[in-house]
User: Fold this.
Amino acid sequence: MLVNQFNIKVFEIEIENEKDFLDFVKKNRVILSSYLLSLKGNITPAIEQTLEDNSLAYVKNMPIKNKSGLSTQFMKNSNIKIVDTLLRSGQEIDYDGDILCLKRINSGAKVKCNGNFIALESVDGLVECNGDFMLIKIGKRANIYFNGVNITSNLDGKKLYSVKLEKDEILIY
Amino acid sequence: MGIVFAVISGKGGVGKTTTSANLSLATAMEGKKTVVVDFDIGQRNLDMILGLENRVVYDITHVMDGEATLKQALIKDKRNENLYFLAASQTKDKGVLTDKKVKKLIDELREEFDYIFLDSPAGIESGFEHTILYADNVIVVVNPEVSSIRDADRVIGIVDAKSQKAKDGKEVEKLLIINRIDPELIEKGEMLDTNDILEILSIKLIGKVPEDKNIIEASNTGIPVVLSKNSPAGAAYRRIGKRLCGEKVDFVEVEKPEAKGLFKKLSGMFK
Assistant:
């Protein structure tokens, strides 16, 4: 089975009358060609023909908004965990996905994730990241594992390092 | 309705009990009716530091078990009429504390006093948890060195997870005191500096107390340094007392080594 994931940008258009819509498409053909059109209302054969001629992709009557009216079902499936509190000694996070830490990770705290890991503030605790990449700045007492390899000695507190896994090789720069 | 301050540190020996004694006296000196309670059941020290050891008849466990009334157990300090003290039991251990008993005692104290200081035991066991359970604020005492900071970090995390206020969805205010700052060691770079500590713990600083030889003598004689005119630590505690009472007092650079002799006198003239 082959599964591909895409991020799609969508124009949602409600068709009120055929002529206005065709004018709109004609005018904005260039922009629209890089979007998916989600159309509501009556799609006449003429409209269908125009869209096909301009090779514009479209779907009919697709519900984008959920019942609460806010988030779309496409955004909801994101599996990133955002940690917006400071992690103190003795606190532990174990997550099967990506983690974004906005505050410090103090000495004695532990973060483990099976996805990618990004920390915006200094890390002094234990981090185990099993994802494909990591963005990290460490303090003096950090202990960092990337896909099972302790890479602490390859990092220092001077800058934000990006760590990548490429073809079974760990690249740090 | 009184405000409850739990004095905590995680690590032992950083100066919790000295801080509790001095701060309670300092707020009493500011005119607040203050009580300081020794929660270190089984290892009481506060009575000695306050110089009240020979006046202890009833202690906290007597009150909790109904063997004595709160009035009977409270010891009034002779140096300051606003200060009262409730001793810990020396013979029992912290197993005697239960949530219910602690709540009843603290509710009673809240009725009577403006400021209530609870001197917590070191560590993170049940005695500590009972001390922070009903606290409105915690005063975290640290020394400027890494193991003290990490232990403090741990107890702050526990306060955020386990205190009643946190369970009710409110935040316990956490105030930091950096104790035993040694100017010489700071200068040599062997002690953590204030900014590093604040960055790690990220709580509000309420005072910095310098290392002071007078503290040892004060413990031996039972006269807290806050009462002494020429103790730098005493002056620091008086400033913290004022801050706790809502007064705005500027922070003093206690990290700078004190100037000696003539120079000291001269610089004193310009203050």
User: Anything to note?
Assistant: The two ends of chain A are 35 Å apart (CA to CA). The interface with chain B takes residues 86, 88-91, 103-104, 106-108, 122, 124, 141 of chain A (CB under 8 Å). The longest helix of chain A spans residues 18-27. The first strand of chain A starts at residue 10 and ends at 15.
